[in-house]
Amino acid sequence: MSTNLSSEDNRKNTKRIVALVGVVLIGIMVLATLLCAFFDPTGVYFRSCLIVTIALPIAIWVFMWAYGAMMHKHTPASFDLNLGGNESESESESISESESKSEPESGDGE
Length: 110
Fold this sequence. Notes:
Elements (H helix, E strand, L loop, with lengths): L2 H37 L4 H28 L17 H14 L8
């Protein structure tokens, strides 16, 4: 086993650990918000927990977006909606034009 594969495995494990920590933090904040809703008579802790519960996923999204923007990588937080592949618009137009020329014309008058 080469060191390159080991490095890729370490990177994947690190990403999984960071994702798990994010999910656990969100879960803890939801639970804390629920408990504060029932047991905080003044509502101060409830409002604080509610704000953090909403702000934490937004902060995670912003960090993912910023990482992708700085490293020039596509992340789930990226704004582009390039779902079909990496073809440019002119390439896809030329492909569709060549396909329409190669199709036989039907003689049934449609």
